[in-house]
Structure formats: C-alpha cells, structure tokens
Design goal:
InterPro entries: Metallo-B-lactamas, NDM-1-like, RibonucZ/Hydroxyglut_hydro. One of its GO terms (molecular function) is hydrolase activity. Keywords: Hydrolase. This is MBL fold metallo-hydrolase. It contains 9 helices and 13 strands. The chain has about 350 residues and is an alpha/beta fold. It has a single domain, classed as Metallo-beta-lactamase, Chain A. The strands form 2 sheets. Strands 1, 2, 3, 4, 5, 6, 7 and 8 form an 8-stranded mixed β-sheet that branches. The protein is elongated, with a radius of gyration of 21 Å. The termini are far apart.
Length: about 350
C-alpha cells in the first residue's frame, strides 16, 4: 500500500520509521479542561482525579486549554480522562480524538473554533475505543480520518456494548470517512500534519499524529502516563513492542515531544522504560504458552510488570496470535538410557 499522495518522505521527521503494517517530553504546567459525562467508558477504568478542576462543556473556553507547543493545545475529557487535542495551521484546525459521544464532539468542535479563530477542517481518531472515537459523528460533515480497521471495530460487539453504556444508539457510531492503511496527510494551511499507522499494539488500528514543525507526536494509547497501559481483546501483545520502537524513532532521543492518550507528556526515558515493560508482557505471554500453561490460568500465573487487571484481557488474544504464528507448547522428549558396551 503506497503512502498518501500528499505524504512525501521530505515531510517526515529526520530519522523517522514509517513502515511495517503491518511503519517528546512535555514538562509544561497543565491547565486541564474537563468535559463531563455521567457514564463511564468501557475500555478503561476511570482516571478522574480530585486535583482536576471540573468544567462543564462551554465553560472556561480557551482559558481551560493547555498550550503544549506552537498552536497545539491539550484538554482532558471525561468519563475516562482522555487527552483531546487541537492542532491549528494558518487556515484551519484539526481535532484529535474528538470525545466519547457526538454531543461531546460537538462541544469540542465549537471550542476548537473559538480557541483558534479558525474553521475546523476535520477530526482524527487514534483508535476505535469509545473515549477516542465515539465523538467522530459530530464531524461527519467534514473530513474524518482513522485507520481502515476502525469501521469494523466500531461495528463489533465491544463497541456496541460501550455505546449502550453511554446511552448511545450503536447504529449512530460514525467510522472515519477518510480511512487509510498506512499514512495520510492533513494540510491546515502553512502546517502539514501527518497521520501514520506504525503497527499494531494497544489495538490493531492505532494511529499516531505527527506535528513535525511543532515537535509533537500524539501517540494515543500506545503509551500512557496517567497509569499503566491496558491490554484488551483487540490488542496485539506480540506486535506492540516493535510498534513502540517506531514511536521511539519519531521521538528523536527526546527532541520531539510525545503526548499520550491519557495523562501528561512522557519523557523519552519514561517512554523507553514503558517500551521495555510492554516487551516484558509480550515475552511473558509467550513463555506461558510455550510452558503449556492453560490460557484460562495464564493471567493469574504470569509475572507482569503491571497490575494483572491491566493485562488479563489481552492474554487470550496473545495466545491466539502466537498460535497463528506457529508457536506451540514445548514437549519433553522421552529420554532413553544408553548402555555402554561391555
């Protein structure tokens, strides 16, 4: 699959890796804007904090957003304390991860226009989970971007269940109207924003958003700083470490800032550490499979770098993916004693 027509190699950060399909470090004071919803999301435990000021949609406006880089703003939306972002060029703005419901998406769209003084050109979802993608319907008259796997994921039962828990009609969920397999570009006028699927990890359809001239990469839930990352039925435990290698390549040793889907920016060293922990999870799942541990016992018997509840839902998926690759439990071969000749 070729890169997007508008995405030339000269537009990527020096040393970037954009490849296999299947391919940052913000330390600024945070003025967090919280968009309230009464219900709780389906994929993440609630990350609400008593230290966060609670602001109703429409209150506070641009004063509640954190400017994290040149014309890049961050806010926090509930019920899952997800990072939502606005990126502005000279002519238009882009919303990244447009909230948990169409109503929340509409509020974010209005605030983005007031914040930047520019029309919103569209929105991008970094993956299909409710807190990142269910607000896409509020932008359906514009261009919406996401990995080509989002449409199927939003039709699947986990997404439908999450929609019902949020009081939404599952049929009203909107998939991106400009899906892509590997990469796409968004022209905001004087600023080019790149969207790239570097590989599978937290889900099979993760996307990162590269704002090269601002030195920022929005990495969705491939990395987390509000707490440990999460594995689910739609995760790719075996592929996640390699995808993070590509993300680390974008960070250019810390010269580029990484903004995760939950929590403030990660330092390069913290991102590197988390990559190692994610690799440890992948290795432990394979060890358990090869050792013949039954899948229903694997999560409880494993040795994990994170609380088991963060990992457990991804273990059966990890077993399945490894089995599809031909990994099998090892078998002890019978040992026949050899007698020395007299």
């Amino acid at each position: 699959m070729a890169l997007d027509q508008g995405l030339g190699t000269d537009r990527l950060l020096a040393g970037d890796v954009v490849g296999h399909d299947g391919p940052q470090h913000l330390q600024l004071p945070v003025l967090q804007h919280v968009l309230l919803l009464p219900a709780r999301g389906d994929w993440h435990s609630s990350r609400q904090s008593a230290s966060l000021a609670v602001v109703q949609p429409g209150a506070g406006r641009s004063g509640s957003w954190q400017l994290v880089a040149d014309r890049v703003w961050r806010a926090v939306a509930e019920p899952d304390s997800v990072t939502v972002a606005v990126v502005a060029g000279e002519e238009a703005a882009l919303v990244v991860d447009p909230g948990s419901t169409p109503e929340q998406g509409r509020a974010l769209r209005a605030e983005a226009e007031e914040l930047t003084g520019l029309p919103v050109r569209g929105a991008v979802a970094t993956h299909a989970h409710s807190d990142h993608a269910f607000g896409l319907a509020a932008f359906d008259d514009l261009t919406t971007w996401g990995h080509e796997g989002l449409a199927e994921a939003l039709r699947a039962e986990p997404a439908r269940t999450a929609a019902r828990r949020l009081g939404l009609d599952p049929a009203a969920l909107a998939a991106p109207n400009r899906p892509f397999a590997l990469a796409a570009g968004v022209d905001l006028g004087g600023r080019w924003v790149e969207l790239a699927h570097l590989g599978e990890g937290h889900t099979t359809s993760d996307v990162v958003v590269v704002v090269a001239d601002a030195g920022v990469v929005l990495v969705g839930d491939l990395l987390e700083s509000a707490g440990p990352p999460w594995w689910g039925e739609d995760s790719a435990p075996d592929a996640w470490p390699a995808t993070l290698d590509a993300v680390l390549g974008l960070l250019a040793g810390g010269r580029v800032r990484a903004l995760p889907g939950h929590g403030p920016a990660l330092s390069f060293s913290d991102a590197l550490l988390q990559r190692g922990q994610v690799a440890a999870v992948a290795g432990e799942i394979e060890r358990l499979l090869v050792a013949g541990t039954p899948v229903e016992q694997a999560a409880a018997q494993g040795s994990w770098p994170f609380p088991v509840e963060h990992v457990a839902a991804g273990v059966p998926t990890g077993y399945r993916r490894l089995t599809e690759r031909g990994v099998r439990p090892s078998r002890d071969l019978p040992i026949t004693p050899v007698r020395r000749p007299d």
